[in-house]
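Assemble and predict.
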Amino acid sequence: MRSPLSPEMATQEVPLNETLAHLKTESETLKLKLEEERAKLHDVELHQVAEKVEGLGQFVMKTRRTLKGHGNKVLCMDWCKDKRRIVSSSQDGKVIVWDAFTTNKEHAVTMPCTWVMACAYAPSGCAVACGGLDNKCSVYPLSLDKNENLAAKKKSVAMHTNYLSACSFTNSDMQILTSSGDGTCALWDVESGQLLQSFHGHAADVLCLDLAPSETGNTFVSGGCDKKANVWDMRSGQCIQSFETHESDINSVRYYPSGDAFASGSDDATCRLYDLRADREVAIYSKESIIFGVSSVDFSLSGRLLFGGYNDYTINVWDVLKGTRVSILFGHENRVSTLRVSPDGTAFCTGSWDHTLRIWA
Amino acid sequence: MIYYFSFLTRSTSGRSHTILSKRTIEDILTRIQDETEGVPIRTVKSFMTKIPSVVTGADIVQWLMKNLSIEDPAEAMHIGSLIAAQGYFFPISDHVLSLRDDGTFYRFQAPYFWPSNCWEPENTDYAIYLCKRTMQNKTRLELTDYEAENLARLQRAFARKWEFIYMQAEAQVKIDRKKDKIERKILDSQERAFWDVHRPVPGCVNTTEMDIRKCRRMKNLHRVKKSVYGLTEEGKQSQSPIHTFFQHCPKGTKEDVEKEISFLKTQLDRHCMKMSKVAESLITYAEQFMDYDPFLTSPEPSNPWTSDDPTFWDLEASKEPSQQRVKKWGFSLEEALKDSAGRELFLKFLESEFSSENLRFWLAVQDLKKMPQEEVAQRAEEIWAEFLAEGAPSSINLDSHSYERTSQNLKDPGRYSFEDAQDHIYNLMKSDSYARFLRSNVYQDLLNARKKAVWKIAG
């Protein structure tokens, strides 16, 4: 009997009459081999190398603004490139645009569905996208005229066969990337509503996505209920890397600012860091006292801090390099459902099931 | 030969699996009630009565701190309150489910009432419960204001079947009477705590609210709603509308596994970086941008969010980039191009060298990718004509391979037709013109301009 670990395995052709069982065995063997190969390069832990890095001092992070106005759970929010405006969406179907600096509400739209789980600000600042239980992603242009009915100009862009979990404009107002409970992600042309590319590979609901920060890159990462985080090539629709170390749903993924790594937050109460060059998980952020799931994660501008919003109503701030928690923030009176750092890193915003949003700095 | 099965996941970074084992609240509940390792649960004598099976809040807080490695009692109280709010333990004399770090008495909830049993009790059950409370002459069972209001509302809502509800309540009272006095005390309190979770005090968080995205995959997918008091609704198989089972594309067909094998083989061929190098790279990046991270280095003159003064934003938006910002352009070509002012200056420099076509091509392709689908083909052809066609006015230098590929792509022009060319040009700029740009007078003057100014003031 030939050894499954023999080198020929990697290059020989698969005969047409292989049974499914044999194929599965081959797959499992390859997985093992892959794990072996990756482990060989794991010569040290990140936190060990980071011992030489100066420790972070004490942080004074407080709620600087509280935005009240939603009538039900806040589910999602996004920042405008102008660093002070935000859009937020909630369970009661309301989508609100705020000047977070003054706390004034500037626009409000009522969606025809409840549970608006996704919203995004267009790079130009002239439109917002949102969707949820309606299985669609719609774009609303923001009018300067306060009296104009925004809903009238609504454009339906994406159509999925299950709930919309996340949406994001690419670096232009003209394309939107979406993820859905139907297990797929998709790239859409806003003007025509045309599907430009679809991404198949998750075995369950896709809950989150994040576009790579590179000016030159064409990739994004998604996380799902299959516990996998997949990195995709937007041009071909192919999954180019996959990571499966979480023990439960991945609720949030976010790239490290250099684009070489990304963090994830999961119902298993941990955040993890995956490096694309090592093709491996390189850090876990967890504590025995943290037993509730992570809903949302984001990095500070330098990537040194990782902010996590949790289902236990708190925000935990992690030292990404050393792996330790540097701060725990209380304030929300129900789950933190969404968390984003502002474009210039001066603050981060959280949205919660307690109907409010908070700006922290 | 040992064959491993499909539950094998790629290993973690080697940390102890005790941290990663399924750390559910129920594990904690089991440990906290353990006879030797748990909190001291005892019967307390009070005036003329005994209070069975209680523990103080302080004991719970202490146990949590010790067993979950919590340093701050406030943190222990927060997590304890959450566990209480979910209904796993409760104060015996209060409807508000929170943990206090004092002598307040708490009792543990019966596993029958644990949230993991997927309770969604109907209002008929709640009505029976409130009704039977009024039937018993005990001060500890007296309805609070909000409960009395709830009962009144339910009486109106169920006016037609109230006789039935009343009868059920009477039946429950009969059953309860048969139980031992101490047992009844405990069960009554547990039952009350159950309803405190499912019909919380107004103002308290309803912890039974669920994230709709997760509902479909809960334990009892096709279950019939069960009654706390054993009622069966004749013929009514009530299935929550959100519990519709959705079949995802089933994994495991021959095609799927073949795809997986192909993917794995590609991954095996990938050349990966050693962890030590990766770590150095992540550290270097974070340290390089530390000065630019407002959470680590206070922005000048102040963080608008903390000072309520937007001057920092006004300065960033002004035509004159700060010295710090100019310094960032020197970190990488990526950083220079990210910043509109950096892009402008680099372009100006290249124009002075009569070699701006590379950057202009790169920028044109970036714009192409941002266009609406309808306009893509035409724009792609325009870019070809301007930069690559024979006799093009802004002719760029491509290697023959990229040129051939691009030429082929233009037969069916699309958003990504110029990817190869763009990569090639980017690398060219990075290795050649970018380095010269950083050494150039235009850049150095700007980089040092502020420095000179600062010296002047100080001198």
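The longest helix of chain A spans residues 20-40.
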